[in-house]
Amino acid sequence: MRIPAHSVCTAIRDDIVSGVFERGARLTEEQLARRYGVSRVPVREALRTLESEGFVVTRRHAGAQVAEPTEQEAADLLDMRALLEPLGAARAAQRRTEAHLKVLRGLVRLGQERARRGQGEDLRSLGGWFHETLAQASGSPALTALLTQLRHKIAWTYVVEQPDRPVEAWAEHGAIVDAVARGDAERARALTALHAERSLPLHRLKSPGGGRVRVSQHAVNTTSARN
Q1: Torsion sign (Cα): 125, 130, 135, 136
Q2: Cys-Cys with 138: which of 52, 88, 172, 174 at CB 3.0–4.6 Å?
Q3: Nearest to 199 by CA among 226, 161, 171
Q4: Sign of dihedral through CA atoms 122, 68, 31, 11?
Q5: How far apart are the two ends of the chain, measured CA to CA in Å?
């Protein structure tokens, strides 16, 4: 397997998220350089980046290894998403372009169609694409990068089940896009917060014995979403 040197970080991250490299597994520069067909220099740089992102830890006398997040750290990921995704939607309502709206509306149409047909695997990828585009529509590269990193970490830490009523979930996506299209930042924020809250019970920790995430006891302010 040979990949461009600048893509080494992405490749290692993808292999960590997908479980090719298990939690706690040792990562040597020599092993990774051989796997991806590159020199040790880009591998070393990639490991530094992944350590800053929290996917890798370096221990004295043991070297680099895949991180092992605690349950608290995993819960924090969902808390951060609950704060940042509504912010991103509010910014999107203020900064989105017509090109963003075209893509978002197209994704909602496809999602609603696949939901009616019960095509779950398609829905998973469409959902990821939807949230990535919504983040990009915020017009904030820093916020987009944070949300992208959070999505990677949540995919690494949790099994995310499909909702029992996917048609309703995609109706929520559609309502968010309508608010973004109208430039209604507060409604976009409230609808996205409600959507994130409703998705919490679908998350199950990947760690042994991991159960579903408990729904937060802190009520989300959804007044604007329901008006």
Answers
A1: positive
A2: 88
A3: 161
A4: positive
A5: 54
- Tell me 26's DSSP state: B
Prediction pTM value: 0.82
Residue 187 has pLDDT above 70, yes or no: yes
Alpha carbon separation from 104 to 83, 101, 124, 134, 173 (Å, rounded): 21, 5, 15, 7, 9
3-state secondary structure of 4: coil
Rounded-to-5 percentages of helix, strand, coil across the chain: 70, 5, 25
Taking each helix axis as running N to C, give the angle between helix 8-18 and helix 29-36, from 0 to 180 degrees, rounded to the nearest 10.
100
Decide the pairing of beta strands 56-59 and 63-66: antiparallel
1 or 40: which leads in pLDDT: 40
Instruction: Return the minimum-mean-pLDDT range out of 53-67, 169-183, 186-200.
Output: 53-67
The answer to whether residue 168 scores a pLDDT higher than 60 is yes
Paired residues of 64 in beta bridges: 58
